[in-house]
TrEMBL record:
InterPro entries: ARM-like (IPR011989), ARM-type_fold (IPR016024), DUF5578 (IPR041090). Pfam families: DUF5578. This is ARMD1 protein. It comes from Alectura lathami (Australian brush turkey). It comes from the Eukaryota. SUPFAM superfamilies: ARM repeat (SSF48371).
Length: 432
């Protein structure tokens, strides 16, 4: 027989549940406020003590109300409802609460909420946080999220959401789904790659940041970086510094691409210097920025193609520095001519600077390039390049710049002919 104390506890639980069942929206809102205030951070034993071993009965009512309300515009108390469910899912030793929530379709509800336009972004953030609690429970729960088309829902939210806080939560969850989840790791990787062409700089930055951490694990399972060159090269044109930083930090991935992802495309020639002047005139509506001294990097807002050109010139140098074997490829593909063209682009000083630095590296490491560049620019300019590559472009006058842009440089005849790889041919095709 139960004791009088236990009977009283059960009676209080039944009264509480009846109060919930008969309460209207305002009353339920107050109940949720009190529940969150009194139970946040409690463990499973503490919650069971609070509800006289009947906490699951209240969780079931919360899940049922969530199912009944989240699809409608008037989703009253949704944020409080999600936080209340989170108290159960985050309770230490409370795995059974998680299972009970999943058994009533919890994951499907949470994922569907991410795509509903009428929901507030703070509600979507709470949904993502609950999904993170599910993912934290282990591999099979990560697989459940992925099997429910979670990667697609999360990457779409990352690309379209305007809230930085929501995007941060999504990035954390995608990073979690990409680790300790070998069955769906490639799916997460491809989903992040699909985010790169979106119009949100922050989404691009977070996707690149997550991809950077996933690159080596994905490579280890023999899948390589799927479909990465084109999207990664596309974001080279971003004018946002945080995105550019993440692109440059992806040099390990670019190295894998340059070594493994063969491409049959041919290197195209960068347009002549006269075309550069025409491009500059067509974009003359960009507001001018007063120069700051002779080494000012830009005299006006850069044309997107120039931003991409500058980033590509920098990336070529970074790739070449990875190893001597990798450095041979841009020489074979006549990248030196492309770098010379970029040095001659006086409409965008950042292109000139990065191209100068990359060109100096090849001059320093390749006798063939050293000889060609010396003949192309003459002994005076050549010595200035070796002495100070960072400021070399400031010593070049318009006539010399046009000569640089029009000078053709052959590849070494004694070097074995190689097939262009996706990284270098992509950089040259896209930006030069």
């Amino acid at each position: 027989m139960t004791s009088a104390k236990e009977q009283e506890a059960i009676r209080k639980l039944l009264v509480f549940l009846q109060e919930w069942d008969h309460a209207h929206k305002a009353a339920r809102s107050r109940i949720l406020d009190n529940f969150i205030k009194s139970n946040d951070g409690k463990t499973e034993p503490e919650l069971e003590l609070e509800f006289s071993q009947g906490a699951s009965l209240f969780l079931a009512r919360l899940a049922a109300w969530l199912r009944m309300t989240y699809l409608y515009t008037d989703s009253t108390c949704l944020n409080k409802l999600l936080k209340s469910i989170g108290i159960f899912l985050s309770a230490a030793s409370g795995r059974r609460y998680l299972i009970e929530f999943l058994e009533v379709g919890g994951v499907s509800m949470l994922l569907e909420m991410l795509g509903l336009n009428h929901l507030k972004e703070e509600d979507k953030r709470e949904s993502v946080k609950l999904l993170q609690l599910v993912a934290d429970a282990g591999r099979k729960y990560k697989e459940l999220i992925c099997e429910s088309y979670g990667v697609r829902s999360l990457t779409e939210l990352l690309a379209t959401c305007s809230s930085a806080e929501v995007q941060d939560e999504v990035q954390v969850l995608l990073d979690s789904l990409g680790r300790g989840n070998p069955k769906y790791r490639s799916q997460v990787y491809k989903g992040l790659v699909a985010v790169l062409p979106c119009g949100s700089p922050r989404a691009q930055q977070l996707a690149l940041q997550t991809l950077r951490g996933m690159q080596d694990p994905v490579g280890e399972v023999g899948e390589g970086p799927p479909a990465l060159p084109e999207p990664l090269l596309a974001v080279l044109g971003s004018g946002h510094l945080e995105v550019q930083h993440q692109v440059q930090s992806r040099r390990v991935s670019l190295r894998h691409v340059s070594q493994k992802a063969n491409s049959s495309s041919h290197v195209t020639t960068f347009p002549p210097f006269s075309h550069l002047r025409n491009v500059s005139k067509r974009h003359s509506h960009f507001p001018d920025v007063p120069p700051v001294g002779p080494t000012a990097l830009c005299l006006g807002e850069p044309v997107p193609a120039y931003v991409q050109q500058a980033a590509a010139a920098k990336a070529i140098g970074m790739l070449a520095k990875e190893s001597a074997a990798v450095a041979e490829e841009p020489v074979q593909l006549k990248a030196m001519h492309s770098l010379m063209v970029a040095v001659g682009n006086q409409d965008h000083a950042l292109s000139q600077r990065h191209a100068s630095i990359s060109l100096e590296y090849f001059v320093r490491t390749s006798p063939f390039v050293e000889d060609l560049v010396r003949k192309a620019v003459g002994p005076t300019l050549f010595q200035l390049l070796k002495d100070s590559p960072e400021t070399w472009y400031t010593k070049i006058d318009p006539g010399q710049a046009e000569e640089l842009a029009s000078s053709m440089m052959a590849s070494p005849k004694d070097m074995a002919r190689m097939q262009p790889t996706a990284a270098f041919s992509g950089l040259l095709n896209t930006a030069f």
